[in-house]
Amino acid sequence: MPVRVEDIAVAVRPVPAAATISGVSTRFLAHPDLFALPIVSDGAALGMVTRRAVLEALATLAGREANGPAHVTRIMVRHPVMCEAGTPVGLVAKLAADQSNAALTDGVIVLNDGRYSGLISPSDLLKAVAQENAARARAMQAAQKKLQKSRNEAGAFEQEKARFLSFVGHEIRTPLTGILGVADLLQDSVHGTEPKRLARTISESGHHLDRLLSDLLDLSRLEAGKLAVNSAPFDLHAFATEARDLWQSRIAGKRLDLRIKVAGDCVARLESDAMRIRQILFNLMSNALKFTERGYIGVELSTFEAAGTLKLRMTVEDTGCGISDADKARLFEAFEQARASTAGTHGGSGLGLSIAKGLARRLGGEIVLADNPEGGSIFTVTLPVRRAGPRLAVTGAPPRPRMKAFELGRILLAEDHAVSALVVTRALSAAGWEVDSVQTAEDAIDRALHQSYQAILTDIHLPGMMGEEVLSAIRGADGPNALVPIIAVTADVSPERRLACEAAGFTTMIEKPIRPRALVASLVDILLADKAAAAEAVQRQLA
Fold first, then answer.
1. What is the DSSP string of 339-394?
2. CA quadruple 517, 520, 526, 529: dihedral positive or negative?
């Protein structure tokens, strides 16, 4: 059950409108825990007065003389956030974003049939939202275990499970935009250490839920044999540098030495699925970091020939607590951890190593676990790879034109989910764009045919019409937006959906959950690339 406002409201005794500011100050001095006082007349809430406003009004001698005898309504918050009993606190958080975060700075007045009932402090509101989010994460982990039990009882339903999880992933990622997006907006707008910490807690809990969901989907695709593998050339030294840069900051909070090296005699240019290899390595490094408090975490990358096949070897060793022989036998099973107390002590869902082993098998390799003579464990991954050709040097190409900063224009957003539309609109508006938001495909097409836009963002699943149809209608019409970037927004992150968006002709695809800063950065990159391409086309015509 969601937390309701009356569950966390405090029945603070109100003051009448005729009360003086000095009288209210006496009340605050007598009760240091009071953050605000409601102002009520005949049971109806007129507003509230905050401790901060009273202190500012009486801060100086002149202020005390001028404001002390005045009615408290002079410094009253006249339009606080008010809500009826029965309102979920999650909805109040959305109202806070809609109303300039008043609920997060001044508090919330709770009504019962229109009459004053109690107050909610900003910190209590954020705590309740954080607790709800944590409960969702616990429910998701419980659902994982039930799902695993179903797999053991009926292994023939893997394909159906994959389809189900894809659907659930879509349905969960959309509201996750609200959780993560609003939490990010709050972190950038609220003031004070405690509100920022609580907003960050909401964001971290939502991010954990998103990782959990991604792990579930990867595990399902692996078991169904539907995980796509995309081979491409990559550089092993750049691969190692990227891992070092990312994990150096993550390891900073512990007294650990991070050692990442590439063997001197290795083949540097390889061809394989670098994204999946990175996922294997990062899962193993995450496991090592979780169980290692002192010493080091070491990674070595090397290549060797075996039976005429080039192979990549990755070793991840740590000086952690080690793993017993009994635990090694089940460690790579889904939802398994070395000790029963691990989840409570270190967290985690028990999916990381299972996914790493599944990915290694999908790439034609294996993972072997051994004891580290210095204490701890050593995981060795061996994968078949191909030798890639040298990076080609491009000569004689005309220099790319230098791009100047572009003007931020108007963006069209077609999104039927209200919270997702709120997050996108707030993020882009804060960055400087003007945003027109519509809920239906018909309205999006109508706007696009009559108003010029810098870019168009459309959800794939709109009421009565798919995003591909919106794209086709705009591109096929002789309107002002036939050539502007049109970007697909979707919670379906499957490879099939990405290929479908590319085939349809979308400029690119943005995945949900949407994070405000990442959205702004992606849109800037898209518009810069579009402007550069247009400039190069003009330069070619003039040449």
1. STTHHHHH---S-HHHHHHHHHHHTT-EEEEEE-TTSSEEEEEEEE-EEPPPPPPP
2. negative
Q: Cβ distance 489 to 510 under 8 Å?
A: yes
Contacts of residue 246, defined as CB under 8 A and 6 or more positions apart, other chains included, come to: 282
Query: Which are the contacts of 468, defined by CB distance < 8 A and separation ≥ 6?
Result: 460, 500, 504
CA separation for the pair 255, 92 (Å, rounded):
42
Q: Tell me, what DSSP letter sits at residue 227?
A: -
Residue reference for tokens 């790439």: 363
Helix then strand then coil, in percent of the chain rounded to 5, is 50, 20, 30
DSSP 142: H
Q: Does the pTM exceed 0.85?
A: no
pLDDT confidence band for 176 (50 / 70 / 90)? confident
The pLDDT tens digits for 12-23 are 999 999 999 999
Helix (H, G, I), strand (E, B) or coil at 43: coil
pLDDT tens digit string along 260-292?
Answer: 999 989 999 999 999 889 989 988 998 888 888
Strand order in the sheet with 108-112: 81-84, 108-112, 115-120
Over residues 196-216, the pLDDT tens digits come to: 788 777 777 777 677 777 777
Angle, helices 418-431/516-542, rounded to nearest 10 degrees:
60
